[in-house]
Amino acid sequence: RAAGTSPGAFYQYFEDIEGIVLTLARHAREPISILLDEIDGDWSGIQGTERGRRLTGLIVDHWSFNGVVLRARNSAADEGHAALYSERMQSFVPLVEAFSEVLGRRDCRFSQKEEAAETLAVNATVGATALVSCLERTAMHQVFDSTVSGTREQAIDTMAFILHAALGAEHCTR
């Protein structure tokens, strides 16, 4: 009604509310190539931290603009709505694959103790999934509840630190 259209006109284009959420979610997925370009690059040193800031800023901005649709998509996907789950995965999986590729180029093994013979091996896909999940949740909290996530700058700097630690830290070799 606020758009000046009747419910009949709305339902001429969309079968139901889920249809419009799906359409809007597809449009929200369009800028994913910009995020993929930012992920693919050098994460070492100060440029890695700056890359993390840019990437996190892009994702927070994306959530600022599309947050209502993205929350509706994610909630419906979590509740088992097949089409919205598929749409969520079409946004999520390319980011996981991009981070996984960066992590896969590195040999990240951490000893629990210097003298320990056993090491903990980092699985690139698991690590990439964790990074994408952290970025999404940080952006969502920043948009919808900044009392939990601090200021925008704090959220961006914190995620930049986490991304740099995972993707560019010196404890991994290239």
What does this protein look like?
The protein is mainly α. 72% of the residues lie in helices and 3% in strands. The chain has a two-stranded antiparallel ribbon with strand order 1-2. Helix 3 packs parallel to helix 5 and helix 4 (45-78) runs antiparallel to helix 5. The longest helix is centred in the middle third of the chain and has 34 residues, at 45-78. It starts with 6 loop residues before the first helix and ends in a 7-residue tail after the last helix.
Mind sketching the topology for me?
Layout: H1 7-13, H2 17-28, H3 32-39, H4 45-78, H5 82-104, E1 109-111, E2 119-121, H6 124-144, H7 146-149, H8 152-167
Antiparallel strand pairs: 1-2
Helix pairs in contact: 2-4, 2-5, 3-5, 4-5, 4-6, 4-8, 5-6, 6-8
Helix content: over 70%
Count the beta strands: 2
Element-by-element helix/strand order: HHHHHEEHHH
Cross-sheet strand order for the largest sheet: 1-2
State the end-to-end distance. Answer: 57 Å
The low-confidence parts are: none
Q: What structural class do the secondary elements suggest?
A: mainly alpha
**Biggest β-sheet, characterized?**
2 strands, antiparallel
What Rg, in angstroms, do the CA atoms define?
A: 19 Å
What is the overall shape?
Answer: elongated
Strand content: under 5%
Note the total helix count.
8
Report the mean per-residue pLDDT as an integer: 86
